[in-house]
Amino acid sequence: MDEILELQKKILPELTEILEKRYNILRNIYYNQPVGRRTLANKIGIGERVIRTEVNVLREQNLVEINPLGMTVTDEGQIIVDKLKDFIHSLKDLKSLESKLEKVLNIKKILVVPGSFDEDEYILKDVGKTSSLCIKTMLKDNNIIGITGGSTMAQVANEMPKQDIHSNILVIPARGGLGKNFESQANNVAVNLAKKLGGSYKLLHVPDSLDKEALDTIIQIPEVKELKNLIKKIDVLVFGLGNAEEMANRRMIPDDKIKEILEKGAVAEAFGYYFNTKGEQVWESSTVGLSLDDFKKVKNVVGVACGKKKAEAIIAISSLKKDMTLIMDEGVAREIIEIVK
Predict the structure, then answer these.
(1) How far apart are CA 253 and CA 314, in angstroms?
(2) What is the reported pTM?
(3) CATH, residue 300
(4) Over the stretch 33-63, which tens digit does the pLDDT of each residue have?
(5) Which positions ≥6 away from 271 have C-beta within 8 Å?
(6) Residue 43: which CATH number?
(7) Domain that holds residue 307
(8) Where are the alpha helices (H) located in the chain, listed in sequence order?
(9) Over the stretch 146-177, which tens digit does the pLDDT of each residue have?
(10) Are 285 and 253 contacting, i.e. CB atoms less than 8 angstroms apart?
């Protein structure tokens, strides 16, 4: 298969370009359906005339339908979208990129999803789907799953196929936090994931950042104590990692404290901890949840990130735990290689 792809790229290089273009158009119709040609052209940065020509080809192949409300993908087209993702992965030789990153970052397993989130926001859905399928392979009966909050984790939960193949699955938020965006709060993400897996959940209603006196009081509450103990027993941890400054602003940390954190060299944030490029902890937000020691003891860990601005964060987090799985988009993967060079 790999040999055939190499021959194809040498003899018919334009075929690869056409395939990627049509795949991009098809999956964007699928994620935005029903959608008009002009809207689609503006969204993916291709001329409306080109869209019309390519859509006609896709329609002739019974992959797309056109109606007064806009373009939609047929059932056959949806199957093609799913199957083409793996083909594009091979076509771009992303397996080699994954192997290179595993060696560079010294990480057990890295999965790279075709495309760049910085150019196509719907890559987040593809990353979410790849992550959910990866998590499925790790699950066993009676497992406790810990998951953090954020838009990436929300997408992972959304893309998890509904199933009930494991018994007694418990999903819990890995860290407290009551952000402004309800959909991406850790509690809500945990509930969504538990429902998809046919499991149960327990919630952690604790603000994102507390002073020591308030924290000491809250951890005496029986429900919070129970969650603290469960967090130490997590079997599968799924977490998002982000740029330190961006995450500090989202957590509404005071400006003077953000300045101090950045001056200490913070480039990455994960589950409330801030790290420099060497993976050294420079600050921790005070809340209830997964500790750094807990994190290092979890057997199955999946970190997920999208966007080139998270390249340094991924490099920093990679030094914390070598036996984890990292999932990212192609754009940030290639950015990491450039930085390491």
Answers:
(1) 22
(2) 0.88
(3) 3.40.50.1360
(4) 999 999 999 988 889 999 999 999 999 999 9
(5) 148, 174, 175, 239, 289, 290, 295
(6) 1.10.10.10
(7) 94-340
(8) 2-11, 13-32, 37-44, 48-60, 75-91, 94-105, 123-138, 151-159, 186-197, 212-218, 222-231, 244-250, 255-263, 292-297, 311-318, 330-340
(9) 999 999 999 999 999 998 888 999 999 998 76
(10) yes
